[in-house]
Amino acid sequence: LAVDRPRFTFFDGPPFATGLPHYGHILAGTIKEYEVDKTLGIKGPNDILEMGIGKYNAECRSIVMRYSHEWETTVARMGRWIDFRNDYKTLYPWFMESVWWAFSELFKKGLVYRGVKVMPYSTSCSTPLSNFEAGQNYKDVVDPAVCIGFRLDENPNRMMVAWTTTPWTLPSNLALCVHPDLDYVVVKAEVTDFAGLYVKDADKQICKNLKERGLLIKQGEVKHSYPFCWRSDTPLLYKAVPSWFIRVEQIVPNLLANNEQTYWVPSFVKEKRFANWLRDARDWAVSRNRFWGTPINLWVSDDLEEVVCPGSIAELEQLTGTKITDLHRESVDHLTIPSKTGRGVLKRVTEVFDCWFESGSMPYAQNHYPFENKKSFEDNFPADFIGEGIDQTRGWFYTLLVLSTALFNKPPFKNLICNGLVLASDGNKMSKRKKNYPDPMEIVQKYGADALRLYLINSPVVRGENLRFREEGVRDLLKDVFLPWFNAYRFFVQNVQLYEHVSCHFPFLLTT
């Protein structure tokens, strides 16, 4: 606004390509719901492969741009100014190139590795998730609680008793662990009876089978907290999955030190919730078995012994001898790099990045750093301010800090305002599927944007507490605050105009 004034920088995290925002999105400025699969009738990866990755990604791009326009309209109606003409989107090739640069830098520092770990796995999305993604959506659910008898090989008349809430895992059990000093005992090596059944659907049939065989000792139900996929809202499974990881555990001391350099409102979120999360941080699984997103820039040999990580479009063009204009899967999956160790050709791994890696890269990727705007970025980083919901302590706040620490060893922001969650009136999470909240734009049309904004900003939600959204609260605020203000203003204007008409001494220019 003024050349000589100090520059104030804040970050707006990229909203995901989803439906229109609800009140939590309006408050926090983000959207988190994905509906490409619903639009295209996609039920699994094979449907996408049959359609073609290029066609699928073209439809994804179309939906992103359509919701981009609707998002702009919603933001403008809420009275928030954003320069959409100079925006960034994570699908822009120049943004993706900066993401590649960031990952390449981590690779050079030895912070990237491939491993096989027990990971939370989304059956709906057919991909493993990171531990912090799994932590975002725990629910209290009722599951079977059964005690199973395992006959001992050396004495078939005796059984070891095991308790589980996941009967679907029993047919694939290979062993029963009874003591760290004893060998595993193989129970069954192969399963055919329940092949093809979805794991949760198999629970009842497996329990019935165990009962018929005299192995079911006790059966009941238990209510417990269980993680669900934050995208599809389906229960996660824990299974050994090969993934690409970032060594977060190695930089935990630096994460804690950089966190201490930041100022949070409310402070307890920083000192308790976030700091505790950082102390227990685990290596970050950044690979996803998806089709739409920034492809992981790793080319590997068949034996995985030779790995190349190009950090720019120019470097990939030099390695492949191919002109490149886009970085999505349909544009790079077919490219190969000649091996330097006699292993034939290197092929790109099939995974794409965790979307949180992309959003965590936005401070520099929005500037196409380090390829452009290098001084502008370095002069304005860290940001003076960011603000999001308390759930981002395990999301955007976390990934911003991890990547900023790993790349620059400094915090990504100086100040942070952390709001609570806007819940439905019944205290549950707002859900389009459940339709448990009124349409935000209908509320705006009915009561006005100012009434909704003041209702939200004047509630405990801005102090990190949760808010149960009530339409009556917006209506009462309009009735008790805005209408008295407006009526007082009208009274003032009418009397001034009357005074002006009678005396003509004070020519005020007032309008209603």
From TrEMBL:
Entry keyword annotation includes Cytoplasm: yes
InterPro entries: aa-tRNA-synth_Ia, Ile-tRNA-ligase_type2, Rossmann-like_a/b/a_fold, Val/Leu/Ile-tRNA-synth_edit
Catalytic activity entry: tRNA(Ile) + L-isoleucine + ATP = L-isoleucyl-tRNA(Ile) + AMP + diphosphate
A biological process from GO: isoleucyl-tRNA aminoacylation
Compartment(s): Cytoplasm
Keyword Protein biosynthesis annotated: yes
UniProtKB keywords: Aminoacyl-tRNA synthetase, ATP-binding, Cytoplasm, Ligase, Nucleotide-binding, Protein biosynthesis
Pfam families hit by this protein: tRNA-synt_1
Superkingdom classification of source: Eukaryota
EC number, as in UniProt: 6.1.1.5
Start and end residues of each Aminoacyl-tRNA synthetase class Ia domain: 33-467
Principal cellular location given in the protein's record: cytoplasm
One of the record's GO molecular function terms: aminoacyl-tRNA deacylase activity
Entry's Gene Ontology cellular component terms: cytoplasm
PANTHER family with a match to the protein in the record: ISOLEUCINE--TRNA LIGASE, CYTOPLASMIC (PTHR42780:SF1), SOLEUCYL-TRNA SYNTHETASE (PTHR42780)
Family: Belongs to the class-I aminoacyl-tRNA synthetase family.
Protein name: Isoleucine--tRNA ligase, cytoplasmic
Source organism of this protein record: Oesophagostomum dentatum
